[in-house]
Design brief:
By secondary structure, the chain is an alpha+beta fold. It folds into 2 domains: about 1-70, no CATH class; about 80-290, Alpha-Beta Complex (Fumarylacetoacetate hydrolase, domain 2), CATH 3.90.850. It has helices spanning about 30, 40-45, 50-55, 90-95, 170, 230-240, and strands spanning about 1-10, 10-15, 25, 65, 70, 80-85, 105-110, 115, 120-125, 130, 135-140, 155-165, 165, 185-195, 205-210, 215-220, 245-250, 270-275, 280-290. Strands 1, 2, 3, 4, 5, 6, 7, 8, 11, 12, 14 and 17 form a 12-stranded mixed beta sheet that branches. The protein has a 5-stranded mixed beta sheet with strand order 9-19-18-15-16, with no helix packed on it. Strands 10-13 form a two-stranded antiparallel ribbon. Strand 18 (about 270-275) and strand 19 form a beta hairpin. The longest helix is centred in the C-terminal third of the chain and has 11 residues, at about 230-240. The chain is globular and about 55 Å long. The mean pLDDT is about 95.
Length: about 290
């Protein structure tokens, strides 16, 4: 099953893709008015995803809408936590001048940094050193603490794409990366959540790319993670409780703009695409802050 978060008349709603063509979706508010319209609440409800799947299967024709023109929201509009892993590919660590790490470089993102599929990434007034990062997103569906290798994937509701848009000069103003990773409108998230039954366990072995104006910039595979999804979940839950709607961003491979000669920065009018095989393509146009 593939779910989207979208806005209709100023209100958040949830949809289910009708089929693999992604040309139509089922508006769950019309198919099952009693269901929540909030993605986090749906994930937290026991049987929530099953209820959404059942409602989509029984939906009347009147609940089917065209995908064209939909205003996408970030897949989980306001996650409780967005936990990001840095340096999770050896080649990306090397291109940034880092030794192969012994432990992930964690940082957090805030909800105001996120935007939906087809929404513009904002190049801020403060800096033009706006970079792209193709990443796999993991969405949590169950409360989890002290996970093990055997049960870690039980808490995963699904997977999506993420563009960890980064203002590189601000990222390097301090030893902590948070400020450069949290500019408003810098983190596209979507286009949809793909449930685990449609992908390999832990979303392993999936090709991941970024493309800028059609040119491939990053081209790698989630099988090359230094810490795979299971290992990342085990490490994170040694420290904190994960809750439904939390998001784990798993790191980016080599090929980012700042490491190129000369550096490549995203500029207004550019189109950036993030693609993960089996999931989809997350598309963003770049626009200046007004």
């Amino acid at each position: 099953m593939r779910l989207i978060s979208f806005e209709e008349q100023g209100q958040a709603r949830i949809g289910v893709l009708k089929d693999a063509s992604a040309k139509e979706f089922i508006d769950l508010t019309l198919a099952a008015p009693a269901l929540t319209t909030d993605m986090t609440t749906l994930l937290a409800q026991p049987g929530g995803l099953a209820a959404a799947k059942d409602a989509a299967a029984k939906a009347p024709a009147s609940a089917v809408k065209p995908m064209a023109g939909v205003k996408f929201l970030p897949l989980v509009p306001r996650p409780g936590k967005i936990v990001c892993l840095g340096l999770n590919y050896a080649d990306h660590a090397a291109e940034g001048g880092h030794a192969r790490p012994e432990y992930p470089s964690f940082f957090l993102r805030g909800a105001t940094s996120m935007i939906g599929h087809n929404e513009p990434i904002i190049r801020p007034k403060a800096s033009h050193k706006l970079d792209y990062e193709a990443e796999l997103a993991v969405v949590i569906g169950k409360k989890a603490r002290h996970l093990t290798a055997e049960n870690a994937l039980d808490c995963v509701a699904g997977y999506s794409c993420f563009n960890d848009g980064s203002l590189r000069d601000y990222q390097r103003k301090t030893n902590q990366w948070t400020i450069g990773k949290n500019f408003d409108g810098s983190g596209p998230f979507g286009p949809w959540l793909v449930t685990p039954d449609e992908l390999p366990p832990g979303a392993a072995g999936l090709r991941i790319q970024s493309r800028l104006n059609g040119k491939i910039m990053q081209d790698s595979n989630t099988g090359l993670f230094l810490w795979n999804v299971v290992e990342a979940l085990v490490i994170i839950t040694e420290c904190m409780t994960l809750e439904p709607g939390d998001v784990i961003i798993t790191g980016t491979p080599a090929g980012v703009g700042y490491a190129r000669t000369p550096p490549v920065w995203m500029a207004p009018g550019d189109v950036c695409e993030i693609e993960v095989d089996g999931i989809g393509i997350l598309t963003s146009t770049i626009a200046d802050e007004v």
